Amino acid sequence: MKKVKIITCIYSDLFGTELGGRIGRYHHYRYSLLSLLKMDNADFLCYTSDREIDDLKEFFYINNNISEQKLTLKVFDIKKTKFQEKIDEKKDIESIKKSDRCLEIQYSKFHWWWEETGEYDYYYWFDAGISHAGLLPIKYLDYDNPNGVKKYFESSLFNNTFLENLINFSENKIFVITKENQKQFWSMTVNPKWYKNFSSKFHVIGGFFGGKKEKWGELVKTFENYLNNIIDEDGILPYEEQILSLMFYNNSELFVDKSFDIWWCRDSAPKETEDAYFIENKSFYKILEELNNIN
Q: Is the pTM of this model over 0.70?
């Protein structure tokens, strides 16, 4: 049986600080990660702060009976990520305080690889908060759950069938999710000069990615080289997804992908949205269906 490790993190109190981060994610991250833990053929590692670790231990180990062998909680000072000196030189702190994106977390998704010893066959990064009602149809959520919070995050789509199909689809490459980026615009790119052949048609999403351990070293080295060069030459701090998108085109032999068009599903879209919109555009959750063998 293949050994699989899923790496994630929870830092839910960063909004308004010099680090930046999403607001109101305390319950979101905890209950979403609890849903992901149904992929129990994998072991999980969750980085967090010394401020949150005791609360997380109580939530997962005591309140929800998750074993410490299945989920390892590890303190990491996110202010000491590998690229902190360059981040501090370039970041606009007042702007970051209002931002919902933390650069330190984005870059650590890759630098944490160097902490691994390689005893697993496959490694994946999953954002802790990816399982939620903003992305998933009600039919895949536990809306009958009496827990008024849990029902918005507990989803049947994350399970061992999903995980096994993800592994098989990854094969010997790094799996990524790509979003259509022209018809349904999502993100700017880094300067086109960095591309061998510039294209902004697809944008790589950082929500979950990974694959065979032998490919991770190449993935991280390539990411870090681009990051260093772009910061030094262009004087900017790119999002991790912008560098992944650059890599998707420049280093295409490294990747295998599944693509989607829109984040919304019918249940989460504005009521005035026409049904035809969801026929013409593929929602994100369809990828999760495909990896569950749901037609």
A: yes
